[in-house]
Each structure stands twice: as C-alpha cells, then as structure tokens.
C-alpha cells in the first residue's frame, strides 16, 4: 500500500454524503472519461499511486477495471476505496465512480 494512501485512509475522516450529494456527483461523473485503468494485476502499488495523484487533482474520477469477473471487480474496487479513502459513488459494469474531497481546497462544491 502506498504510504500516502494509508494516511488518507486512516487519518482523514470520510464524510457521509447525502443522497442528494451522491446524485449530484453521479450527474457530474456521467460525462467523465476513465482516468485509471486496472488490469489483470489488480490494485498494484503503481495503480494506488496513480489513484492517489488523480484523486488529489480531480476529486471525482472514473476507474475502469478490465478483464475480471464480478467478484474480482468488487474486490478490486473495495481495495481501491479502502486504500485511498475515497467513496464509491457508483458502480456500473467495469466502471466505478470514486470521490474524495480535497482536504484543503475542494474543487467540487457539495450542497
């Protein structure tokens, strides 16, 4: 596990999102292209590092999990969420929408 991912997962509390906020994030994420692609290796150290950097920059992003059955995809998504401190907003097929608010300068305003 990437050291920074451990910091986010254990120190920064995950805020509870209301259904209205989740709906707004799904709306914002609809037009996004996937930024992270996870292959057969799963949630490797390189993937976790890239996820950390991408979440710090974008806050809301899509992850594409390729070449895995449903159980493996769910396990990979769980590993990514727990390692990064992000929240799973939506999961459809091979795609997962993740959100983690920037601790100092949030870009997405949640109402």
What's the helical proportion of residues? 40-55%
How many domains is the backbone divided into? Answer: 1
Strand content: 15-25%
Q: Give the overall silhouette.
A: globular
Q: Tally the helices.
A: 4
- Roughly what is the average pLDDT, rounded to an integer? 85
Number of beta strands = 4
The succession of helices and strands, N to C, reads: HHEHEHEE
Please compute the radius of gyration using only Cα atoms.
13 Å
- Mind describing the biggest β-sheet? 4 strands, mixed
Give the distance, in angstroms, between the N- and C-terminal Cα atoms: 33 Å
Please give the CATH class: Alpha Beta
The name CATH uses for the topology is Translation Initiation Factor IF3
CATH superfamily: YhbY-like
Unreliable parts:
1-11
Structural class: alpha+beta
What is the name of the CATH architecture? Answer: 2-Layer Sandwich
Give the neighbour order of strands across the main sheet. 1-2-4-3
């Amino acid at each position: 596990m990437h050291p920074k991912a451990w910091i986010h997962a254990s120190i920064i509390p995950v805020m509870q999102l209301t259904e209205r906020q989740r709906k707004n994030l799904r709306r914002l994420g609809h037009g996004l292209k996937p930024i992270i692609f996870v292959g057969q290796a799963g949630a490797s150290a390189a993937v976790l590092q890239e996820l950390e950097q991408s979440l710090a920059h974008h806050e809301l992003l899509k992850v594409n999990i390729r070449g895995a059955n449903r159980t493996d995809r769910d396990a990979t998504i769980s590993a990514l969420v727990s390692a990064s401190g992000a929240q799973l907003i939506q999961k459809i097929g091979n795609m997962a929408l993740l959100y983690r608010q920037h601790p100092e300068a949030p870009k997405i305003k949640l109402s």
